[in-house]
Amino acid sequence: MNALGLPVEASAAFIFGFFRRDFGAAGLYDLHTSGQLDPIQLTVAAVTLTLFVPCIAQFLMMKKERGWTVSLGIFFFVTLLAFTTGWGLNILLRLSGISL
């Protein structure tokens, strides 16, 4: 979470997001309304959560259709892509001084 510029509390939203995407979004909303996420952090978290691996049901469906090897490959690639994109977006927004 630190690499994304997010508080540690945001990790719970990502864990819930793996079980159900809307629970993850609700967790981010709660963090934002309680003042724990600023607008840039909320944007970075929402983009990362959106790109993050689909929920557990989708992952199990991929496993059923493609097998463990391909599913785990997709899981690791998409996770790396999501967090790298979130990291880059955080840096871009912070350095550019864009106000959201």
Name the helicity range: over 70%
**Alpha-beta content class:** mainly alpha
Strand content: under 5%
The domain tally reads 1
The whole-number mean of residue pLDDT values reads 92
Terminal-residue CA separation: 20 Å
- In angstroms, what is the radius of gyration? 14 Å
Residue stretches low in confidence (pLDDT < 50, at least 5 long) are none
Order of helices and strands: HHHHH
What's the number of helices? 5
The number of distinct β-strands equals 0
- Major beta-sheet overview: none
Give the overall silhouette: globular
How would you describe what is shown here?
The chain is an all-alpha fold. It has one domain (about 10-95). Helices cover about 75% and strands about 0% of the residues. It has helices at about 10-20, 20-35, 40-50, 55-65, 70-95. The longest helix is centred in the last third of the chain and has 29 residues, at about 70-95. The radius of gyration is 14 Å and the shape is globular. It starts with 9 loop residues before the first helix and ends with a helix.
List keywords for this structure.
100 residues, mainly alpha, 5 helices, globular
Task: Provide a quick synopsis of the model.
By secondary structure, this protein is mostly helical.
SSE layout:
Blueprint: H1 10-19, H2 21-33, H3 39-51, H4 56-66, H5 68-96
